[in-house]
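hey m, so remember when u said the tokens were messed up on ur end? i reran from scratch. heres the input so u can diff it against urs
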Amino acid sequence: MAAQPSARFAYADVRYWSSGFLEQLASAGILQVGTAETVVCDGCGQGCEEIVTYVDTEPGGRPSAFVVCRGRDDIGRVSVPLAHLRTWTLRPEGLATWLARELHTRQEACPIVPQTLWRLGTTRFGNRYAHVFLLAGIDMLESSAVLQSLVQAQDGTSVLVLVPNEDLSAVATVEAVRYLGLATVLRADARGLSLDREALVHKLGKGRPRSTGKVIPFEAPGLNVWERLTIEFRDDETVVVMGGGRQEPLTFVEMGFGDGRSKHPRPDSLWRLLRQLACANGLLDWDRLGMVGVDQRLAPRRFSDLRKRLKAFFPGIAGEPIKPYSPKRGYETAFVARVSDEYLRRLLSQSDRAAR
């Protein structure tokens, strides 16, 4: 597989990111701040990429920048705000160094495949130890081969590979290796950038989800309207949430839908309502409410509670996740609610067996 260039973010890529997040990544040595030499000109609407000309002003003044529109002769110079010309480039070695320090591996990050795979060291998660690696993504094929050989030579300790996001479509995954997207465990607040170790332990846990009493809201750059969100059920207790370039599997406990009255965690009635919406592709009319076990007299209150629960878990999204009730359509989600093909087949199979 040919090497890919380092990830670079322009203003258009990060304009909706949380305030201060870029500065925290740069301060941690994970991103390198730069200035663009070219930019897409918006003078005539053709989207041409033009060379930026920077102009120094008199002492004490502010510099400026412009491009020359080549699409039309009557436009000439097009001013470009300096803030739109900043760039941020991922420094994989900086990310590896920061992760090794945050994980308290007591080892320095060691590159195994140049600019792609780093050994971060061994650390403890709960009552288990794991050998941790960072896969930053240039030569994925060689990295997978190296990981395969490392797994075969390990001492039985778990192997965890951290990746920048949950999309593993470009990764030749290795059996017996656990892959985890950093977006699910990175935290940025007034104190700075950190790894949420509690979330890490929870993600690596096995068996039925335990109620920790802590729900971590789902946020992603650019995820500010419900129409950009998808919730897909994979089974009775697990969904995959997709939006803002982030994709994350979550249980009902992690989303705050656990029944607190039960000693052993189980989904509450709002989770079951959300699942019924997904089974109906986000639309439940009045007649169907009774068919899926929703008391029509209590429906307005139930859907109001579900709206509040979803808005609390997705705090960065404005508006209502479920549209106002329509006599013609019923209750309809503003986001995409669905079930996976495999889960749908299981549900249909269960229904067929019950009908016999």
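this time it looks ok to me. Confidence is low (pLDDT under 50) at residues 1-5, 206-212. if urs says something different then somethings off w ur setup not the seq
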